[in-house]
Amino acid sequence: MVKTPIILLLLLVAGIWLIFEFKRFKHKIFAVFLIVLVLLTYFSFNTVIVKNNIDIKTSGGIKEAGQLYVVWLGNAFNNVKEITANAVHLDWGINESVDSVKNLNVSESLNLSSSSH
Fold it and tell me: Rounded to two decimals, what is the model's pTM?
């Protein structure tokens, strides 16, 4: 027979283990986020340089590339802001098209159940 104190002890040990695993998981998520951020920055910066034929071997080229990249990032954030604002102002309620799909699904399921008899 398993006694209650042993079960409580096992639950406590499992809980402590899960807490530490969750903390380690949060650190892994943060590391993956940083890696993705670095990769996106590299590829987007490289795209700006290639599309504008900038020579980054000179100090003027580095300055121009930096300025273009900041402008590019600003435009990207403005685009995300506009998309978000437009999405917020959409009517997210159920409309007639959703109701008609529900009615169609109900009628199809009724037809299937009546034809199976």
Answer: 0.52
